[in-house]
From TrEMBL:
Species in which this protein is naturally found: Ornithinibacillus halophilus
GO-annotated biological processes: peptidoglycan metabolic process; proteolysis
Keyword Transmembrane helix tagged: no
Protein's recorded name: D-alanyl-D-alanine carboxypeptidase / D-alanyl-D-alanine-endopeptidase (Penicillin-binding protein 4)
Keywords, comma-separated and alphabetical: Carboxypeptidase, Hydrolase, Protease
Gene3D superfamilies: D-Ala-D-Ala carboxypeptidase C, peptidase S13 (3.50.80.20), DD-peptidase/beta-lactamase superfamily (3.40.710.10)
């Protein structure tokens, strides 16, 4: 009996000791959790205080956003930080996803310069698998494109002239256009049916052509000029090519009547229709139209140039693959990427953005596709500490309405890249506010005159964005990203952004 009582006493003591240790452990755990929560709250509070106390722009912008009727029912994402320290000065829905429109080009430009390098060029090669005998080429002639979006009509003329000068007057074989450097997917997956016939949504090919030195690859310029009242206006196409067919049912009307012309391209064809009225005295109307199948467009310009130089051929002109036995006859390189960045950013060239994406895929993974290129872009951007898991990226230009970026992450990227060796090229490519020269002011040439703003614009239906750098009246340089979504009229958003930046300039 005594043994039983002793056993029970010892057991009770053990239970009491175990209970005390458990309570101690739980207390320590709860205290640790409480301390961590307290630290998190203090960090959040410190961040808010830092923004509010140091920068009065916060309360001023907040008040403006609250009172601006044009923003009613819309979403505004704003991020402003120091360009020297990266410190976040102000944010409004800064961690929310927004459709970026052409602000997407900022990321694509970073990836292109980072991976390809500022000296990178895009080449076009002329090759043959035959030999020249008595001025006749016994074999096929190949024109192989490697992504150059800057080829002009005169470049094809120079190809033809050099071929003639090499002693070739007749080609006893085929003329073959090779665009296999990239895949054969012509349009990014979110292009809508009513965009695809316009130049800004032109098809992408490794072999293409541009109508002028804006380098809107895969497009032509259609010009309509009035004649006498009642007569059809004159229509010209540049470059001059029979690759497209124009059906003109428009008419010239009296001077006091309204100009009302409609341009279209029938899907799957190169038939361009022009309808409506143009008044006498009109200086003319120009439209940039995308062609169907830019590879064949480039091939058409090449064969036309050969004919003009007196070079004939016996077989077919077609799209195909360059023979493994083919030898290089001549090569043409584009301007370096450092120069191409200027029309790309300042004129917001969508085609260049998509070429950069496919070239990134080709360069890194050996496949020139949107999927491979976007993967490269995301990997590059993440190397700057940017959380790309917060993004949705569907193309390189921002034309897709599915793209989504985060203002705080974008302003952070613009801060992080400032130490790159190519940053001066990047910065120079950005539009400069209020400068009339198109290749300096770009898409900001008619905005914010007198303000020191360098930034990338963005506009699609219901969306206006602007991200870049601004110098304030106090002499500080700030980085900003402003994204307005769900606007009833995107044009109204331009003035809203400009006013916000006026607040930043005066109070930053």
């Amino acid at each position: 009996m005594k043994r039983i009582i002793l056993f029970l006493t010892i057991l009770s003591i053990i239970i009491i000791i175990w209970s005390m240790n458990t309570i101690s452990i739980e207390t320590e755990t709860n205290e640790a959790r409480s301390t961590e929560v307290k630290k998190m709250v203090e960090r959040e509070h410190k961040s808010v205080v830092k923004v509010g106390v140091k920068h009065p722009i916060g309360s001023i912008i907040d008040e403006y956003i609250k009172e601006e009727p044009l923003l009613e029912g819309s979403l505004a994402g704003i991020s402003i930080r120091s360009s020297d320290t990266g410190e976040l000065y102000y944010e409004h829905f800064g961690n929310t996803r927004f459709r970026p429109a052409s602000n997407m080009k900022l990321l694509t430009g970073v990836a292109a310069l980072s991976v390809l390098g500022q000296d990178y060029t895009f080449s076009t090669e002329i090759l043959t698998d035959g030999n020249v005998v008595n001025n006749q080429l016994k074999g096929d002639l190949f024109i192989q494109g490697k992504g150059d979006p800057t080829l002009l009509r005169e470049d094809f003329t120079n190809f033809a002239r050099k071929i003639k000068q090499s002693g070739i007057e007749r080609i006893d074989g085929n003329i073959i256009a090779d665009d296999s450097w990239y895949d054969d997917v012509r349009l990014s997956r979110d292009i809508t049916w009513d965009d695809e016939h316009w130049y800004y949504a032109a098809q992408i090919s490794a072999l293409t052509a541009s109508p002028n030195d804006d380098y809107d690859a895969g497009s032509i310029i259609v010009t309509v000029t009035p004649q006498e009242v009642g007569k059809k206006p004159t229509v010209t196409v540049s470059p001059n090519t029979d690759y497209v067919q124009v059906i003109n049912t428009a008419r010239t009307v009296s001077k006091n009547q309204e100009e009302d012309l409609t341009f279209n391209r029938k899907h799957g064809t190169n038939i361009i229709t022009i309808e409506g009225d143009i008044p006498v005295g009109s200086p003319g109307v120009k439209e940039w139209m995308a062609v169907w199948e830019p590879t064949k467009y480039a091939l058409s310009l090449f064969t036309q140039a050969l004919e003009e130089e007196g070079v004939s051929w016996t077989k077919n002109t077609k799209v195909g693959i360059t023979s493994n036995e083919a030898k290089l006859l001549l090569k043409h390189d584009s301007m370096p990427l450092s120069e191409l960045m200027v029309p790309y950013m300042k004129l917001s060239n969508n085609g260049h953005a998509e070429v950069f994406i496919k070239e990134l895929g080709r360069n890194v993974h050996g496949k020139g596709s949107w999927e491979e290129g976007i993967e490269v872009l995301e990997n590059v951007i993440s190397e700057y500490g940017i959380d790309t898991d917060k993004f949705v990226i569907r193309d390189g230009s921002g034309l897709s309405h599915i793209n989504m970026l985060v203002p705080n992450e974008l302003s952070k990227l613009l801060y992080e890249i400032q130490d790159e060796t190519w940053f001066s090229v990047y910065e120079k490519s950005l539009p400069v506010a209020g400068i009339p020269d198109r290749l300096i002011g770009g898409t900001l040439r008619y905005r914010m005159a007198g303000q020191s703003v360098q930034a990338k614009t963005g506009t699609i239906s219901g969306v206006v964005t602007l991200s870049g750098y601004i110098d304030t009246n106090s002499g500080e340089r700030l980085i900003f990203s402003i994204m307005l979504n769900n606007l009833l009229d995107e044009v109204d958003g331009i003035g809203v952004i400009d006013h916000i930046l006026e607040i930043v300039e005066k109070n930053g």
